[in-house]
């Protein structure tokens, strides 16, 4: 019989000892406001900078006065600093910002633990456009004084930012007329109800009347904007098809980088190449950049006090008008001008014409002011046309000649009209000189600055500051919102390039002194 072996009993392992969590307790802790943020925290920089700016325009609008009854207003320097900090942290909602003020250390330090309600924050943000523009000019003065702006070279570009409206809010004239009528009737009806005593809830009635009046005003604005849109159309049919947004009448449908067409504004931004600081900005309703360069340079002059020495912009801005405008303003302009041959090749390809039957295949008969085609037929001069910056003389073949021609398929895919040939005439002198300048290596090197300089702030404002869609409605308020983005961007550049290096040098210096 095998021996009986007693089982080995392992000693029980003691349970791990962890700290208990007591959520039933209440604790009062002292908060030392000054220690909420470190010495190089950006709220300190923002407060220091806003303290240097002239805020008299803001203070002048405050109705509360010392020594008189009534509560004190919030300090405009605080509201300005709070919004600059909020935008730099991608916070664009006034409600969320107000909540953040209760626990976010940077905001707690700024406001000394105070909390501003969202209504006050919203009102401060959406008004004061004039003061905000002056602040940008002042800020640029500070940056210029510190050598961060030279205006030797300014790169310019536009970016589309979605308006506070959906694509489905666009209506044609007839629908708009009905909406205007409905809005007017509602205002009259609510005023009639008010005159007869109202519903008994005065506050609600007043809110309804205010909303009806605002809608009525918006419909009137929509009618005005529709006329502007119609005036820009070429044909009667296009004018009949013209539409405008009922919720954001001043916005226009614009194509974005992802090919989506959305109600938007075109934000034009000029950037000093020295340190990529924004030195000019404006908002336009035009989806095309072609006529925006001169206005942008005027903005730079207004904000900084003078035109830049050089300006650089892409092909969207480069045309005869902008070349002429820049010459007139004494600005050395660098851009991208399409070669007429390339343009002509593209239009021939679109029309299905064989490259072998291009304009060079036709012989100019100077004496008779006509052309002779490869089949020996005569094309008569019909008109002069302008495409971009170049003048062309146009000659038309007879449809019966082209219809029965052996080269018809290659030369005139639509014989019912007869082949139309455009012969390029002499180019405008300024444009020809510009084209020659852009062929030089030096000009190409300057033009290469454009992408990295001009596109960087656009991307920053959209991606880092989160302004991809305006929160505010109306062109004036959208301009103010974009201005906040531009100011925040420039303030952050100032912190990075000027304020933080000085603070860090002081901190290191203090450390070295203590060690010594
Ligand atoms: S298609 Fe017309 S223009 Fe062209 S070669 Fe023939 S006749 Fe001449």
TrEMBL record:
InterPro entries: IS1182_transpos (IPR047629), Tnp_DDE_dom (IPR025668), Transposase_InsH_N (IPR008490)
Domain named Transposase DDE: residues: 373-490
Positions of the Transposase InsH N-terminal domain: 34-126
Basic and acidic residues bias spans: 202-215, 231-242
Region (Disordered): 192-215, 231-259
Protein name according to UniProt: Transposase, IS4 family
Phylogenetic placement of the source organism: Bacteria, Pseudomonadati, Acidobacteriota, Terriglobia, Bryobacterales
């Amino acid at each position: 019989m095998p021996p009986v072996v007693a089982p080995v009993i392992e000693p029980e392992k003691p349970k791990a000892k962890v700290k208990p969590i007591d959520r039933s307790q209440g604790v009062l802790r002292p908060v030392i406001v000054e220690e909420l943020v470190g010495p190089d925290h950006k709220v300190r920089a923002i407060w220091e900078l806003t303290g240097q700016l002239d805020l008299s325009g803001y203070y002048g609008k405050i109705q509360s006065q010392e020594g008189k009854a009534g509560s004190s207003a919030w300090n405009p320097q605080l509201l300005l600093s709070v919004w600059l900090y909020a935008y730099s942290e991608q916070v664009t909602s006034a409600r969320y910002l107000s909540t953040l003020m209760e626990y976010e250390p940077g905001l707690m330090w700024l406001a000394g633990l105070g909390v501003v309600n969202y209504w006050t924050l919203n009102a401060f943000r959406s008004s004061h456009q004039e003061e905000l523009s002056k602040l940008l000019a002042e800020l640029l003065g500070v940056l210029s004084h510190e050598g961060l702006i030279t205006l030797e070279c300014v790169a310019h570009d536009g970016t589309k930012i979605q308006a506070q409206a959906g694509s489905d809010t666009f209506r044609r004239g007839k629908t708009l007329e009905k909406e205007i009528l409905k809005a007017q009737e509602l205002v009259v009806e609510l005023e009639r109800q008010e005159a007869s005593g109202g519903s008994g809830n005065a506050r609600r009635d007043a809110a309804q009347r205010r909303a009806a009046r605002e809608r009525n005003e918006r419909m009137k604005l929509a009618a005005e904007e529709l006329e502007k849109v119609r005036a820009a159309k070429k044909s009667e049919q296009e004018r009949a098809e013209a539409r405008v947004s009922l919720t954001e009448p001043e916005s226009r449908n614009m194509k974005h980088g992802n090919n989506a067409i959305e109600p938007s504004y075109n934000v034009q931004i000029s950037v000093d190449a020295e340190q990529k600081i924004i030195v000019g900005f404006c908002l336009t309703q035009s989806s095309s950049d072609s006529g925006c360069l001169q206005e942008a340079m005027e903005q730079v002059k207004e904000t900084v006090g003078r035109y830049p020495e050089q300006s650089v912009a892409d092909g969207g801005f480069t045309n005869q008008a902008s070349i002429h405008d820049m010459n007139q303003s004494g600005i050395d302009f660098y851009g991208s001008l399409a070669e007429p041959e390339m343009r002509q090749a593209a239009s021939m390809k679109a029309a299905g014409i064989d490259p072998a039957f291009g304009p060079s295949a036709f012989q100019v008969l100077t004496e008779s002011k006509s052309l002779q085609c490869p089949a020996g037929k005569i094309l008569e001069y019909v008109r002069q046309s302008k495409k971009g910056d170049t003048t062309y003389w146009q000659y038309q073949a007879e449809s019966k000649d082209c219809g029965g021609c052996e080269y018809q398929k290659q030369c005139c895919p639509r014989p019912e009209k007869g082949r139309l040939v455009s012969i390029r005439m002499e180019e405008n002198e300024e444009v020809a000189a510009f084209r020659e300048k852009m062929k030089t290596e030096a000009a190409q090197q300057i033009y290469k600055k454009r992408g990295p300089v001009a596109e960087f702030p656009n991307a920053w404002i959209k991606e880092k500051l989160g302004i991809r869609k305006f929160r505010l409605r109306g062109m004036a308020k959208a301009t103010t919102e974009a201005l906040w983005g531009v100011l925040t961007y420039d303030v952050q550049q100032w912190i990075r390039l000027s304020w933080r290096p000085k603070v860090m040098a002081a901190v290191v210096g203090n450390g070295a002194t203590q060690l010594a």
